[in-house]
Amino acid sequence: MSVSSTKDPLDGISGELASSGGGAFKATLLFFMAIACYNVAELVVMVLSTFRRWKGLYFWSLLLSGCAGVLPYTLGFIMKFFTQAPSNLSVTILSIGWWVMVTGQAVVLYSRLHLVICDERILQRVLYMIIANVFLLHVPTTVLTYGSNAVGEEQPAWVIGYNIMEKVQMTGFTIQEIVLSGLYMWETVLMLRICLVRENQKIMYQLIWINIAMLVMDLILLGLEYAS
Known about the structure:
Layout: H1 22-50, H2 57-82, H3 87-111, H4 120-149, H5 155-194, H6 198-226
Helix pairs in contact: 1-2, 2-3, 3-4, 3-5, 4-5, 5-6
Domain DUF7703: 28-226
Keywords: Membrane, Transmembrane, Transmembrane helix
Transmembrane segments: 29-51, 58-79, 91-110, 122-139, 178-196, 208-227
């Protein structure tokens, strides 16, 4: 949800698609939004067909981060950029989706963390970090998002504040991701030292590489954010 000038094809969180964007730009946006929706559908099918019992933190965090996270986040931007829907409505839908998507994905990682870490103190501190980031990062960003979409003389000030907070929240959530992925990788490396079964080692190496890939993508997004 980056903010750019009105000369750009995408006016950002405070605007709409400018007419200069062209059909190709709009088609590209819709293409990636369609991929996001397809991934959610695939995730739902895999979750419902894989889990024998439809309960537990892992099950619900996986399901909700997609259905109540990615889907409304995508729908909110479609309403904002491609329809005449009221700004507050589209911002509300995409903000709800953003909350559930970002924190939901963190809860997915947290829900499996006890499989590699037995220290309750570490697990508790990770949970406190996730909860704290909801109030420190989600809340102020959402307030600034609404302010940036308000009509009035103070809107430019809200946009400036949003630009700053956008970088802060992305940095904060990236650090959160680094902590979670770092814990997985650290504990997996320790397990590799004592595990002699080749199949188990293969799974552990896959876990390490998956977390490395996630960190690389997070750092790329963070770099793009700071590059505006």
